[in-house]
């Protein structure tokens, strides 16, 4: 079983990723850190706790991050057109049962990695500010973390928040740059593969038949997400399982094929947030370039509700 720390901006597909992980016996979630992006840190924290409650997993501790980019700027506006005003497509869940932890996200990452040397995988499905802060404060964690699986970037395809940039990198490009150059072992699960993993409306309707608080909330938020994709592109056959694919890779790395790359992040100008990949045997970023989308989506559907 792998010890996992999630770093999230919950977020509809973050919620799907957390649900998938909690239903996967290969994974043991030690704790969850939160950041801004799809929504604010406060809302991402609340959404995460409410989801854990609905999953019957209220004992998993949640550590809020800092509401500021690595370079000290205010976060960009939240992406309400994809994730709704509350970050989870206006799905309603009961008041949170637990309070957020008082320890800050980056301090928790440092502590957990030292508590479980070479036995922690971080699944980061949001911007990189918590991890960058943790590495800056204690660079020794780079050698002690097993793997960092990041949903982010687009090496061969276009971006999604700008024509060049993927959202998680764009929300804090300096943090992503800092993490990539730190030499921490990264597996990058970007739009090159996640845009092929589509979930359709029919599946969501099946969840409603399960009729639990959790399944209904998941159906509400995912319907919002599918509609947002349709508004953006009439031809869309569903929504992309961006963040769940990062969990899929942690469970079974054969869902994807990767190439070792050096990744640069463009920090200024029109292409800000773009991830530029250069193939090299010395590269510390294992970049996903192909995915067995059908097998992964089936696996996800089997487990999610
Ligand atoms: C990523 O950005 C966020 O909107 C999603 O939750 C996902 O992590 C996709 O680009
Ligand atoms: Ca996310």
UniProtKB/TrEMBL annotation:
SUPFAM superfamilies found in the cross-reference section: Nucleoside hydrolase
InterPro entries: Inosine/uridine_hydrolase_dom, IUNH, Ribo_hydro-like
CDD domains attached to this UniProt entry: nuc_hydro_CaPnhB
GO biological process, any: purine nucleoside catabolic process
Sorted UniProt keywords: Glycosidase, Hydrolase
GO CC annotation, single: cytosol
Alphabetized GO MF terms: purine nucleosidase activity
Keyword Flavoprotein: no
Domain Inosine/uridine-preferring nucleoside hydrolase stretches: 4-297
PANTHER family assigned to the protein according to its UniProt record, in alphabetical order: INOSINE-URIDINE PREFERRING NUCLEOSIDE HYDROLASE (PTHR12304), URIDINE NUCLEOSIDASE (PTHR12304:SF4)
Protein's name in the database: Nucleosidase
Organism: Gracilibacillus halophilus YIM-C55.5
